[in-house]
Amino acid sequence: MTFADTTPDAFHALVSHGLITDAQHDAALAHPEAAALPPIPGPAHALAWMRLKNLIAEEELDAAVERLEAASPAVAAFTEAEDIAYDADDLLDLGKTGITHEAVAALFNEGLIDTETRDLALRAAPLTGAPAALGPTLGWLVTDGLLDTEPFEALRARVAAEPAFATAADHRRILDEAQAIVAADEQETADMLKEFARSQQASWRNFGMIVVAVVIVIGWYLFGR
């Protein structure tokens, strides 16, 4: 699959959804880095790249979404366009942390992920962004469910058993960074579950107090007057 096969379609989809103008579409294709772009998974990835390269400002995008929302009669594709804009925001934030196609490819080249995981990650990761961050990218693969916990733990064990040489040290550093991200995510999930359990207990206590109060009022009404 080549740039000519995929990239114009992704950018043209943004025009079709009313998120960018024809002039912005042409500017994207004329950008000096456009020809080197990898195949683009979808319009959100194209939009995130345009945001990164300042080919469309956040204010311009917000205005486009607002126009679609306010259109009369209503634009049927507004919800889909809004979803694309939100997804592009998420991709832009990921790219700023160094989670990119380059980082995914580097993990694959280092033998730390397999072909299936690489292909899944390329569909989900931003095209470009900050310099490739392999540890955070590997951690993201686990926390986003693109790499299951079991193969990740097997990878940690394999890397820990690698003979001591320069590549092994790099691999351990990548795995340590990834594990720190996974552990932080697990702790955050545990804290959220605890908070939810506490709120449920408080709700039941409040409900019980209300029931008791209702019973007292009914008892007074029936027998206390």
Describe the overall structure.
It is built from 10 helices and no strands. Residues 1-6 have low confidence and may be disordered. Helix content is 73%, strand content 0%. The longest helix is centred in the C-terminal third of the chain and has 59 residues, at 166-224. Helix 4 runs antiparallel to helix 5 (78-96). The chain is mainly α.
What is the H/E order? HHHHHHHHHH
Number of H- or I-type helical stretches:
10
Report the β-strand fraction as a percent range. Answer: under 5%
Averaged pLDDT: 86
Helix content: over 70%
Give the structural class. mainly alpha
What profile does the largest beta sheet have? Answer: none
Oligomer: single chain
- The strand count comes to 0
Rg, Cα atoms, Å: 25 Å
Distance between the termini: 85 Å
Shape: flat
- The residue ranges in which pLDDT falls below 50 over 5 or more consecutive positions are 1-6
